[in-house]
Amino acid sequence: MGRLVVVSNRVPTPTPGTPPAGGLAVALAGAMQERGGIWFGWSGRTLPATSAAQEEPEMVEQGRVTYALVDLTERDLNDYYAGFSNRMLWPLLHYRMDLADFTRVALAGYYRVNQLFARLLAPKVEPDDLIWVHDYHLIPMGGELRAKGLTNRLGFFLHIPFPPPDILTVLPNHADIVRGLAAYDVVGFQTPSDVENFETYIRREKVGHRLSDGRFVVHGRAIKVGAYPVGIETKAFTEAAEHAAKNPLVKRMKESLLGRQLIIGVDRLDYSKGIAERIQAYETFLTLDEEWRGRCTYLQVTPKSREDVPEYAAMEREVAELAGRVNGAHSDLDWTPIRYVNRTVGRNALAGLYRLARVGLVTPLRDGMNLVAKEYVAAQDPADPGVLLLSRFAGAAHELDIGALLTNPYDVDGTAGALARALEMPLDERVDRWRRMYDRISKFDVTDWRKAFIGALEEPERTTPKIAAV
Ligand code: ADQ
Question: How wide is the angle at C-alpha 368 spanned by C-alphas 388 and 145, nearest 5°?
């Protein structure tokens, strides 16, 4: 069995002083511990803009896993990460053409860093290693590794949505990006809709088609393309929630509610998460359903993110002002409708807060999956579970539509109505809905996800049928 080499923009090194890794990082590190492996990517450190690129990654060994850490110059980071990845690909792949900002300088930086990564990683790879590249920052990495002569099994997983071709083709270099995907043996998306969008793109752009055995031919290579919906560590999260009542933060929160129903939202501060629309829906709900005034509290826990990208600073102001305005208009002397908190919360406390909440508000405008939706379900008390109010545009809706109340986050009135329905839902309906969702996230958790993807990557190659010219 070959080793597993994982490549991601940021490497979660288990060093003291850094926050504990989330479920995804734990699942990937677990696979590497079992079979040996390398986790390769950016160290999180920057070199001055004038420095030369690093010639050798720093290698940190932890058991059977070696973390290979690359420092990036400020210029590289700015062009590749803040620039092309987060100001072009992130908005566009989240259907936000209005926010996408394309520059040739950023694009050049994107390819430059992918080439640097391939150059530094290639000498460390052994012939039977499996290589698994993660996310939109690193799409060209597979092609760059192939250019170095690597014939290893190469997999790519996109954590964010793959939009329909009318949106993707707004990207001036969309053809190169898709050609980059064709260098892999397995391309994984979050949902069947993403796979469908990919298929429509290759057909329309005449660069490929689906074979009768389910594989795709793209730019003349037969590859596997499929939906591998990412999961959470369900069991561990449920256990954390069961024990969280003793957590001081959870205790304080519970006491401060004074018996009011808790509504919770937990998201990185990002325009894709629909936080402003959610606050507007909550305000509409308070206006329409006066009897809920003073009887519920909405807690929105939102750590700031990507503060170096201008669109995020603008949104931060917008959300803070909106929360302030709603509180100003609707608060009473002894009641504040929204508690808007810009901080991270430890995993155990978070599990406890989810469990306290009667409604989990997960209403992104677009999301690859959204793990908060699954965490909220995992944390509920089976005897008195809360209701998940979920955007139909979150990848998680493909799995959790069996029990969640689905909503269109652009429809503020509709979301307000769904919130009232969630708060008033009788216990037997809540239990029934929750049970169906919990079964799903128990049967397919983050370890199953990682095994499904690695299994596809390891499967012996089938003989490729003669490929018609495309
Ligand atoms: P993200 O956009 O970061 O991930 P999400 O899937 O919701 O979105 O994961 C966020 C994680 O951060 C969750 O585990 C959540 O608990 C945690 N988190 C958020 N706010 C927090 C807070 N205040 N304190 C502590 N923890 C907090 C990207 C894609 C998603 C996809 C994931 C995984 O955008 O669509 O689901 O990758 O593939």
Answer: 155
Structurally, at CATH architecture level, domain 4-231+449-457 sits in 3-Layer(aba) Sandwich (3.40)
pLDDT (tens digit per residue) in 175-222 = 999 999 999 999 999 999 999 999 999 999 999 999 999 999 999 999
Confidence at 466, pLDDT banded by 50, 70, 90: very low
Annotation marks residue 159 as catalytic: yes
Give the relative orientation of helices 347-356 and 234-243 as an angle to the nearest 10 degrees.
Answer: 70
234-443 to CATH, choices 1.10.8.50, 1.10.620.20, 3.40.50.300, 3.40.50.2000: 3.40.50.2000
Is the predicted pLDDT of residue 33 greater than 50, yes or no?
Answer: yes
Which of the listed residues 371, 444, 446 should we mutate to test ligand 1's pocket, taking the one with most ligand atoms within 8 A of CB?
371
Residue 111 C-alpha to ligand 1 middle, in angstroms? 27
Of 94, 134, 137, 159, the active-site residue reads 159
Strands 216-218 and 186-189: unpaired
Mark whether 243 is an active-site residue. no
Q: Is the CB of 349 under 6 A from ligand 1?
A: no
Q: Which amino acid residue places its CA nearest to atom 21 of ligand 1?
A: 344
pTM for the whole thing? 0.96
How many angstroms separate the CA atoms of 37 and 64, rounded?
7
